[in-house]
Design goal:
The protein is of the alpha+beta class. Helix content is 42%, strand content 19%. It is built from 13 helices and 15 strands. Helix 3 packs antiparallel against helix 4 and helix 7 packs across helix 12.
């Protein structure tokens, strides 16, 4: 959530930054309501001060021996009662204005950072680097991962549709083993790099999704339990970040690094007709997530090391990829800056997203009220939050099934996974 003080003090700059994003966002309604609320606040404070003054005057007169039924005291009491009635009517008005402002603030996305390229579509994203060209397969007859997976009997889409609906998959035999091996490898790698593993709930309440920015804007993309205030998580970023909702963390505890493996659930409401086949865009998929809570001064450096952590998985698996700096139009709702990692899928002859690593600065912390306090200093500050996939497991499997596909139709197991799988070939 954006800081209302920042909007009041720099309205033109805020509006200009919002205008670089996709969608239309206006801050004028917030400014208008804020002005009304501040007028009421001033009026209420003045009336409250007068009410307090009357109370002191009455007390002073009584102590000095004036009869409580004296006309001067009765007049003050009458004025005081009138003020209390007025104050009781102003308070709910001000409360309602604050609630309206809060709802409008929740609908505004984060502001792009100065190092986020300005653009109007994904075509304006900037390629930062590529890695692993030497690992791109030379086999010209590579078939899509879903075809080779079904041929080997390790992926089954037809039965998953029978059980659920489209955009689901069942993994069988070596397919299930490969997924489990990838999860174990990713978690072990991240724990080795200093992340603390957590296993969070897969169902979260509305406050949690609001805290990380999925609600209210993206309600249609999430699965909600009809009888409860619970939603299936779209990513582990939600429960892991919300571990610390409405808490004040000791500064000495920062930075906090967490990694979590969870299934993730997304309706993919805005992607009708896209990636209907394969493992790229499913309603249910597994992911290993990375979450950081850090001090403000270090968050952009932390984004770079977060990116390195995600890259380390692809490099260990020897999967070719590239890094993209997303432009303002392609930036996620809560992010101020995002690097996308895109893995090479040879059957399509192009790179596809496998991880997004984002710095949200204080945007999520302000919504979820996550602060920290330095020992010996007055006041608190909002932490900065970061998150990234480390990695999306299904998309990693897709990349392995294609990049390690052999001419005879078998799949070579990446060397770092062989110890987990106990085999060299699928």
């Amino acid at each position: 959530m954006l800081d209302i003080k920042q909007i009041r003090e720099n309205p033109q700059l805020i509006q200009e930054k919002l205008n670089t994003r996709s969608g239309k966002y206006e801050i004028q309604p917030i400014l208008d309501l804020s002005q009304q609320q501040r007028v009421l606040e001033v009026q209420r404070n003045e009336l409250q001060a007068r009410s307090n003054e009357i109370g002191k005057l009455v007390g002073h007169k009584v102590k000095s021996g004036v009869n409580p039924q004296d006309g001067s005291i009765l007049a003050l009491k009458e004025e005081g009662n009138s003020l209390k009635i007025t104050l009781s009517s102003l308070e709910p008005q001000e409360k309602e204005l604050k609630a309206q402002i809060h709802q409008l603030l929740l609908a505004l996305p984060n502001l792009p950072s100065d190092s986020t390229p300005i653009g109007t579509s994904e075509d304006d994203n900037q390629e930062v680097k590529t890695w692993g060209d030497e690992y791109k397969p030379e086999n010209p007859n590579i078939v899509p991962h879903w075809e080779i997976g079904e041929k080997l009997g390790i992926l089954n889409f037809e039965r998953a549709v029978k059980i659920a609906q489209t955009r689901f998959v069942s993994l069988i035999g070596a397919g299930a083993a490969l997924e489990r091996a990838l999860i174990q490898f990713m978690l072990s790698k991240h724990i080795e790099n200093g992340y603390i593993e957590v296993s969070p709930p897969l169902l979260v309440n509305t406050d949690s999704l609001t805290g990380t920015g999925q609600l209210p804007k993206f309600a249609e993309d999430s699965f909600k339990c009809a009888e409860d205030d619970l939603w299936l998580i779209p990513t582990a970023e939600v429960p892991v970040t919300n571990f610390y909702r409405e808490e004040i963390i000791n500064a000495e505890e920062l930075p906090i690094y967490h990694t979590a493996y969870t299934p993730c659930f997304r309706r993919e409401a805005g992607s009708y007709g896209r990636d209907m086949r394969g493992l790229i865009r499913l309603h249910q998929f597994n992911k290993v997530e990375l979450v950081k809570l850090v001090k403000p001064e270090s968050s952009f450096d932390e984004l770079e090391t977060l990116l390195v952590s995600a890259e380390s998985i692809l490099q260990a698996l020897k999967l070719p990829y590239r890094v993209i700096n997303l432009c303002t139009a392609d930036l996620g709702f809560s992010a101020t800056k995002t690097y996308d990692l895109e893995v090479w899928l040879p059957s399509a002859g192009k790179y596809r997203e496998i991880s997004s690593c984002s710095n949200c600065v204080d945007f999520q912390a302000r919504r979820a009220d996550i602060r920290f306090k330095d020992a010996g200093k007055k006041g608190t500050q909002f932490v900065h939050t970061l998150n990234g996939s480390g990695l999306a497991v299904g998309r990693t499997m897709a990349a392995i099934l294609e990049n390690y596909q052999q001419a005879d139709g078998t799949i070579k197991v990446p060397e770092v996974l062989q110890v987990y799988l106990g085999r060299e070939v699928l």
